[in-house]
Amino acid sequence: MRQPKVAIVCDWLVSRGGAERVISALAQLYPQAPIYTSIYNPEALPEFSEREVITSYIQKLPFAKSKHHLYLPLMPTAFEQFDLSEYDIVISSCHSCAKGVITKPRTLHISYCHSPMRYLWDSWHEYFANYGINPLLRSTARHLLHKLRIWDRLAADRVDKYLTNSRHVQERIQKYYRRESEVIYPPVETQFAIKPEQGQYYLAVGRLAPYKRFDLVVDAFNELQLPLVIVGTGKEEAALKKRAGRFTTFVGQVSDSELREIYSKATAFIFPQLEDFGITPLEAMSSGKPVIAYGKGGALETIEEGISGLFFEEQTPESLKEAVIRSQKINWQAEKIQKHVERFSRETFERAFSSYVSKEWEEWKKTMA
């Protein structure tokens, strides 16, 4: 019997992050599958250069590769225009509009949902407050988000089966889409680390965006007067540098090999934001380093308190400072921390995902017989 013909769909491929690592793992699982996406920047993600990547009309628009978020209103149409009629299985990796592709009745559409769009649902008020939307444009923006919210809810019903990255997101899928889903944790490079060294500084890694809450990390370490290294760039970079004292060092964007070295020399990793899952804490733990995390969201599923890290209860400098001081009294054991991360390996993800798709495809064929 012939193997089912598979297509992979994702929101965009313009920078490296957790969603892009999922696409990389899916591309390895299904080497013959083309990748459909709104925008692709091969300079930023050369690992896909040998793959067939099919982009939307947005690809040709000005600044699409660097300002992709400006084209969100066009993305529903872009994904609906993809012709996926020749495929038996469509796998969408989605935190935005990719799930909105239109498939034939006989096609099985499985969506790995990283999150229902936060800027449309539970966090849209925060996005308005944090991203400095021009007051003159706010009324138009609210109307646009209302229209996108309606489309997003309708598009969610086009998916046949949902997978997701955490129980935290599973609850949000049930809340906003009224759909059941199964959790398969996303792939983490658990062999990421080199041998851990004696800690020299505390570490935070990520995009310097408002919701990541690097501001409270900077404030806490200004008061603690402990060395802090921040890896990453983003719209908050200039403001954070102005806010930071002499104990904080910004190193910008670094290569994977440089990041491994930085992890290996950290005392502990600081994770101040609410995330649906969060891969950087697992990278830190794979380096044998404990994580001091805000005690909500996906972090509760990946960090074992007292073994691989600990939590602070409020997103305030005072709460973070108390957790840092508490962490200094714990005798952290790198081997135990690294052992804890093994269940999040890329191999575990690929095995679970492949098994799920094969099982659902067999069931799907029975309903189509």
Structure overview:
The protein has 369 residues and is α/β, with parallel strands linked by helices. It has two domains: 6-187 and 345-368, Rossmann fold (3-Layer(aba) Sandwich), CATH 3.40.50; 201-343, Rossmann fold, CATH 3.40.50. The chain is built from 13 helices and 13 strands. The strands form two sheets. It has a seven-stranded parallel β-sheet with strand order 3-2-1-4-5-6-7, sandwiched between helices. The protein has a six-stranded parallel β-sheet with strand order 10-9-8-11-12-13, sandwiched between helices. Strand 8 (201-205), helix 6 and strand 9 (228-231) form a beta-alpha-beta unit. Helix 6 (214-224) crosses helix 11.
Short key terms for the protein model shown above:
single chain, 369 residues, alpha/beta, Rossmann fold, six-stranded parallel beta sheet, 13 helices, 37% helix
Question: How is this fold's topology laid out?
Answer:
Layout: E1 6-10, H1 18-29, E2 35-37, E3 53-55, H2 75-80, E4 89-94, E5 108-113, H3 124-130, H4 138-156, E6 161-164, H5 167-177, E7 182-183, E8 201-205, H6 214-224, E9 228-231, H7 237-243, E10 248-252, H8 256-264, E11 266-271, H9 280-286, E12 291-294, H10 299-302, E13 309-312, H11 317-327, H12 334-341, H13 346-368
Parallel strand pairs: 1-2, 1-4, 2-3, 4-5, 5-6, 6-7, 8-9, 8-11, 9-10, 11-12, 12-13
